[in-house]
Amino acid sequence: MAGLDIRRTQLSNGIVVLGSENHTNPSVVLRLNVRGAPVLDTPGTAGLAALTASGLTRGTKTRSFEQINEAVDAAGMSLHSGAGRHLVSIGVRCLAEDLKLGIELMADVLRHPTFPEKEFTQLKGQTLTGLRQADNDTGSVSDRHFRELVYPEGHPYRLRNHGYQETVAPLTRDDLEAFHAAHYGKDGAFCVVVGDVIFEDIVRRLDDAFGGWDATGVAGVDIASPSAAEPSLKDVVVPGKTQSDLVLGAVSIRRKDPDFQSLRLANMILGRLGMMGRLGDSVREAQGLAYGVHSELDAGIGPGPWAIRAGVNPSNVDAAFAAIRDEMHRLIDGGVTEAELERGKNYSTGSLVLHLETNDGVAGLIQDIELFDLGLDYADRYADIVNAVTLEQVNAAAAKHIPRFEQTVRVVAGPAR
């Protein structure tokens, strides 16, 4: 997509601001990102970062949870806070006329949360309920054990973002307060604004709200490249289930790896396009061995996992694995075709255009541009980047980075086999 003008500057305390003006409708999306994210959790405190992020809007030194909600509802805006693996995002979506209030609320919940005991207790209870549900979900259980097998103890990508029942249950509001004090600050923070604003004006407003914030926080985290995990097969029994979820894969590449676009296209052809690519055509449609099957490449700041996931009848687990193996090896040994690559490129370029039709979509792209240092003209260059990838590069990336079936970690969660 051409013509996406993204500007970048810094507030007086160093917080980066990136913005794109869009005056076609009177709305604004504003996101302030800090680095106090789940990559900072330890094995014993998994879930602390996410719980802290969720607790930001539950009350501040000057506003109760009810007062925050009343102010948000009266303006018809939305205010949210939450944690991804690498970033905590505090976001506002509002009309341009309500931007002053939106910035005030964002600054208040980010800088002055109090994590009131009553609200913390309710929030932790909701989180534990979700974790109990996850521990009874075959897909979540298979993913947990997969990560624990492919990443070593202590690696941040090994942990579930929202933690586990056994790590969240002991947490107190004092833990959230201490985590916020230690890890929330201007270092590594950046703000994204998209919508009906004048960039210079929004920068002045943000500097008034955040320029005096001198908490240091965390600039970033180095994510190590682990040694390759030993190939293995693990069965996990989840009582009362009639479906099995399987996952197989290995640690893969970083987002900045020069092979990223080539591997992304290879993976798209294998298990993303249409009804989930070659895997869907063969394993699900032609052979009827899976309710659903797809592959995914989760390249992050560090080397994320590449994985294939499928939901299957327990009696079909071995046959599904065999069918998946055949498709993996067909890709590795035989590569993709020109027609498949053209389809993948068309989907990639077309989906970005659709993604950028909303302010939220533009904000998400700008967030990735800053996080992964893609360049402010990335959207303008994207079609050229994708279309420049050759068939030889895609096939070389598949052969290099997609493991053979026998090299993978494999987990099956469901009824006893």
Helices and strands, with pairings:
Blueprint: E1 7-10, E2 16-21, E3 27-34, H1 48-55, H2 65-75, E4 78-83, E5 88-95, H3 99-111, H4 117-134, H5 138-150, H6 165-168, H7 173-183, E6 190-195, H8 199-210, E7 232-237, E8 244-251, H9 260-271, H10 277-286, E9 292-297, E10 305-312, H11 317-334, H12 338-355, H13 359-372, H14 378-387, H15 391-401, E11 409-414
Helix pairs in contact: 1-7, 3-8, 9-10, 9-12, 9-15, 10-11, 11-15, 12-14
Terminus-to-terminus distance: 50 Å
Mean pLDDT: 96
Q: What is the total number of structural domains?
A: 2
Large-scale geometry: globular
CATH architecture of the largest domain: 2-Layer Sandwich
In CATH terms, the superfamily of the largest domain is Metalloenzyme, LuxS/M16 peptidase-like
Number of strands: 11
Q: Compute the gyration radius: what is it? A: 23 Å
- Poorly predicted runs of 5 or more residues: none
Comma- or semicolon-separated keywords:
2 domains; alpha+beta; Cytochrome Bc1 Complex, Chain A, domain 1; 417 residues; 15 helices; five-stranded mixed beta sheet
